[in-house]
Every structure is written in C-alpha cells, then in structure tokens.
Amino acid sequence: MNDASVCDRTRSGVSQCSERTWSLNNIDLAGLSWSCPGCASKTPPTLLLHGWLDNSLTFEKLGPTLAELSDVHAIDMAGHGKSGHRPAGQSYLLMDYVADLAEVIDRYFSEQGTAPVDLVGHSLGGIVCGLYAAAFPENVRRLVMIDSIGAISRPVSETVPQLRRSIKKRLNGSGKSVVYPDLATAARAREGGVSPLSHEAALTLVPRNMEPVDGGYVWRTDPRLRHPSPLMMCEEQVLATLEAIETPTLFVRADKGLLSYRKGLEDRASRISHLDTVDVPGGHHCHLDGETHAVEEAVGAFLSDE
C-alpha cells in the first residue's frame, strides 16, 4: 500500500485526501489532509497526532470518517513519516512536540489570536494533545485521547538513572540501519513489539516510515526517537497537567490496549473536569487495526455534539 492509495480510497466520495506540508521556523512537518467540501467555514478543523514510531497513516480509517464533519489534518510528528528530523545535537523531547503543535496551530489555524480546533491523538499523540490543551485551553474546542491519558511518569528516585541512560545512549549512537529487501519484510518486523499489529495494519503504516536504498528499504524515521528521554515527569506533574485541561475531553479506552491493565488510571481520569470515557474493543491501535467502527462512531459523535 502507498500513500496515494489511501487518498484514493475515500468513503462515498465525501472526502478528498492530499499530502500536506506545514513549514515551521526550524522544521518542516508533513502529513495528510482530508477535505470536507460541504462543511461550513466556521466548522473547526480537526488535527490528528499519531503515536510513537507511527505516522499519519495510522488515521487512514478515522480520517475520512471525521472529514464528514470538518477538514481533517493528520500530522507526521518530527522525526516520523515524511516530516523533517531534529538538527544534529538535539533530541526528541516531549515538550518540543507540544511546541511544534503550538506553532502549527498559531501559524496555520489561528485567526486574530484565537484558534478553536479539535484535537485527536493516539498514544504519544494523545499525550501531546493533552499537554497542549492544558497550556492553551482557549485554542481547543474538543480533545480526544485514544488509548492515552497523560504522560508516562517515573518516580523522582529514577531521575538520575534516567539521565545517565539517556546520555550514554546519545554518546554511543544508534548503530547501523537494517536494510529490508522489501516493504512486506519491514512490515513483518513491525508486527511484533510492545504494541503488536496485524500484517494488514503494519502494511498500512510501514511504507510512510521507509525510504528506498540500494538493496531494499531502510527506516526513514529518525533513529534518535528510540533514545531514552533525559528527563521524565513524575506522577504529581502528570496529574497537574490533567487538572489543567478545561476542554471537553473523550478518553477512548481499548479493552486490550496498553492501558487496559494499568493501575491508577481512575485517579488520572478523575483529574479531568469534563471527561467522557468510552470502552471499545481492540488493542492499542484500536482505531486502525481490526474492527474500528466503535472508535469511529464514538469519536465522530463526540466531535459533532455541540
């Protein structure tokens, strides 16, 4: 599967998909847009952010569905998909993703200092969208987090060990890139891991994360994305960010997702003042892999509710 085939496979002719680029001060971000020709100009656009090591094609099912409500823009975050990489000497800090999102909204979607948009994020994208909504509530009409509710936290006692791991990895580098003979082989490599995917879902995501070389394909994604973060939030900080979210919020909880067995989610959920929670079938990629209608219906209904 290639990116063009996703744009061609619109639903009932409702949406039109196109490649997009959002040029920021220090990086160019790529992505996919689904237009909603019949939508009123006042309808807020919907911005979609993917998870770690994924790309905008994770929304190849959800994007066309939401384009029945508004214009939809799925962004490849820095270092992912077809977006640019951070300059040499920099790393991929969580708050820099939030700053990128802020610049995209300010530069491309704001009007006289305000930018009411809807945000939908999966996994890491949900964390980034939540942090942005906490910091800039006036710019977000509705927030959706798919199998995601707040940043990963670490006890304060792990601060120095985490810093040590991060610096050692930065000094040692990322190693040599693996060359895959074809995209199907790369997809099979992506199927396993912490968040397993079906072969079909892996074939959807992988092409946008690859680039051709002599002998096959290598990952286009920046290898520094796998480096440990030098500093992570403690749980108290995470709870403070969730308490700051004023935006009506939907938490889509997958019954076999990464958060399905995690303790403490009730406390996190209770900190968001206007939160709806919906349980859906599926794993971490419940919006992409397998039966996705429950996710599409829940998110669509939430964003269309005035």
TrEMBL record:
InterPro entries: AB_hydrolase_1 (IPR000073), AB_hydrolase_fold (IPR029058), AB_hydrolase_sf (IPR050266)
Pfam families, per the entry: Abhydrolase_1 (PF00561)
Positions of the AB hydrolase-1 domain: 45-290
Residue ranges of the TM segments: none
GO molecular function, one term: hydrolase activity
Keyword annotations from UniProtKB, A to Z: Hydrolase
Record-linked Gene3D superfamilies: alpha/beta hydrolase (3.40.50.1820)
Similarity comment: Belongs to the AB hydrolase superfamily.
Record-given protein name: Alpha/beta fold hydrolase
Source species: Marinobacter koreensis
Lineage, broadest ranks: Bacteria, Pseudomonadati, Pseudomonadota, Gammaproteobacteria, Pseudomonadales
